[in-house]
Amino acid sequence: MKSIALQLIFLTTSIIYLKLCSPQKYVEFKKVTDDSENNYHTSSINNDSSFMNHLQIVLKAYNINFKVKNNKLYIPDSIFSNKELCKNLTTKANDSIWIYSNKIPTNSNTH
Protein backbone atom coordinates (compact mmCIF):
# COMPACT_ATOMS: atom_id res chain seq x y z
CA MET A 1 0.00 0.00 0.00
CA LYS A 2 2.87 2.37 0.85
CA SER A 3 4.48 1.55 -2.48
CA ILE A 4 1.34 2.50 -4.42
CA ALA A 5 1.03 5.79 -2.52
CA LEU A 6 4.68 6.63 -3.25
CA GLN A 7 4.21 5.79 -6.92
CA LEU A 8 1.15 8.05 -7.10
CA ILE A 9 3.02 10.89 -5.42
CA PHE A 10 5.95 10.44 -7.80
CA LEU A 11 3.66 10.33 -10.83
CA THR A 12 1.73 13.43 -9.74
CA THR A 13 4.94 15.33 -9.02
CA SER A 14 6.38 14.33 -12.40
CA ILE A 15 3.28 15.51 -14.26
CA ILE A 16 3.29 18.85 -12.44
CA TYR A 17 7.01 19.29 -13.11
CA LEU A 18 6.59 18.53 -16.82
CA LYS A 19 3.66 20.95 -17.11
CA LEU A 20 5.51 23.77 -15.38
CA CYS A 21 8.97 23.23 -16.83
CA SER A 22 8.34 22.02 -20.34
CA PRO A 23 8.72 24.53 -23.14
CA GLN A 24 5.54 26.29 -24.13
CA LYS A 25 3.98 25.03 -27.35
CA TYR A 26 3.02 27.71 -29.86
CA VAL A 27 0.32 27.31 -32.51
CA GLU A 28 -0.67 29.47 -35.46
CA PHE A 29 -3.30 32.05 -34.56
CA LYS A 30 -6.53 31.78 -36.49
CA LYS A 31 -9.40 34.25 -36.42
CA VAL A 32 -12.18 32.95 -34.18
CA THR A 33 -15.84 33.84 -34.63
CA ASP A 34 -19.05 32.31 -33.40
CA ASP A 35 -22.53 31.89 -34.82
CA SER A 36 -25.97 32.41 -33.34
CA GLU A 37 -25.75 29.03 -31.60
CA ASN A 38 -22.36 29.89 -30.02
CA ASN A 39 -20.44 27.42 -32.16
CA TYR A 40 -16.87 28.60 -32.76
CA HIS A 41 -15.40 28.84 -36.25
CA THR A 42 -11.77 29.50 -37.15
CA SER A 43 -10.27 30.97 -40.30
CA SER A 44 -6.74 31.69 -41.38
CA ILE A 45 -5.27 35.19 -41.33
CA ASN A 46 -4.11 34.58 -44.94
CA ASN A 47 -1.38 37.23 -45.06
CA ASP A 48 -3.77 39.97 -43.92
CA SER A 49 -0.99 42.30 -42.78
CA SER A 50 -3.39 44.90 -41.39
CA PHE A 51 -5.13 42.32 -39.20
CA MET A 52 -1.78 40.87 -38.12
CA ASN A 53 -0.48 44.31 -37.11
CA HIS A 54 -3.66 45.04 -35.19
CA LEU A 55 -3.56 41.62 -33.52
CA GLN A 56 -0.02 42.31 -32.31
CA ILE A 57 -1.26 45.53 -30.69
CA VAL A 58 -4.03 43.58 -28.95
CA LEU A 59 -1.67 40.84 -27.77
CA LYS A 60 0.82 43.39 -26.43
CA ALA A 61 -1.97 45.24 -24.60
CA TYR A 62 -2.94 41.99 -22.87
CA ASN A 63 0.66 40.85 -22.29
CA ILE A 64 0.16 37.69 -24.34
CA ASN A 65 3.37 36.21 -25.74
CA PHE A 66 3.51 35.68 -29.48
CA LYS A 67 5.99 34.90 -32.23
CA VAL A 68 5.97 35.90 -35.88
CA LYS A 69 7.61 33.49 -38.28
CA ASN A 70 7.24 33.24 -42.06
CA ASN A 71 4.45 35.86 -42.05
CA LYS A 72 2.43 33.82 -39.57
CA LEU A 73 1.65 34.72 -35.99
CA TYR A 74 1.93 32.10 -33.26
CA ILE A 75 0.51 32.20 -29.74
CA PRO A 76 0.77 29.74 -26.85
CA ASP A 77 -1.44 26.70 -27.30
CA SER A 78 -2.86 27.34 -23.83
CA ILE A 79 -4.22 30.68 -25.09
CA PHE A 80 -5.53 29.37 -28.42
CA SER A 81 -7.38 26.54 -26.70
CA ASN A 82 -9.56 29.20 -25.05
CA LYS A 83 -11.81 29.96 -28.03
CA GLU A 84 -13.83 32.64 -26.21
CA LEU A 85 -10.62 34.55 -25.48
CA CYS A 86 -9.46 34.17 -29.09
CA LYS A 87 -12.85 35.37 -30.33
CA ASN A 88 -12.42 38.48 -28.17
CA LEU A 89 -8.86 39.00 -29.47
CA THR A 90 -10.16 38.69 -33.04
CA THR A 91 -12.95 41.18 -32.35
CA LYS A 92 -10.56 43.72 -30.84
CA ALA A 93 -8.09 43.34 -33.73
CA ASN A 94 -10.95 44.18 -36.12
CA ASP A 95 -12.08 47.20 -34.07
CA SER A 96 -10.23 50.27 -35.39
CA ILE A 97 -11.46 52.45 -32.51
CA TRP A 98 -10.10 49.98 -29.93
CA ILE A 99 -6.81 49.74 -31.86
CA TYR A 100 -6.45 53.52 -32.06
CA SER A 101 -7.17 54.04 -28.36
CA ASN A 102 -4.86 51.21 -27.22
CA LYS A 103 -1.98 51.55 -29.65
CA ILE A 104 1.32 51.56 -27.83
CA PRO A 105 3.19 54.71 -28.84
CA THR A 106 6.42 54.26 -30.73
CA ASN A 107 9.59 56.08 -29.74
CA SER A 108 8.66 59.66 -30.47
CA ASN A 109 10.77 62.66 -29.60
CA THR A 110 8.32 64.94 -27.86
CA HIS A 111 9.90 67.48 -25.54
Describe the fold and architecture.
The protein has 111 residues and is α+β, with helices and mostly antiparallel strands. It is built from five helices and five strands, in the order αβββαββααα. Helix 2 (49-61) crosses helix 4 (83-93). It is elongated. The model is unreliable at 107-111 (pLDDT under 50).
Write a short abstract of this structure.
By secondary structure, the chain is α+β, with helices and mostly antiparallel strands.
Structural class by helix and strand composition: alpha+beta
Mean pLDDT: 83
Rg, please? 19 Å
User: Which word captures the global form?
Assistant: elongated
- Tally the beta strands: 5
Work out the count of structural domains: 1
In the predicted model, the low-confidence regions spanning at least 5 consecutive residues are 107-111
Which strand order spans the largest sheet, edge to edge or round the barrel? 1-5-4
SS element count, helices: 5
State the helical fraction.
40-55%
Helix-strand pattern: HEEEHEEHHH
Percent of residues in beta strands: 15-25%
Distance between the first and last residues' Cα: 73 Å
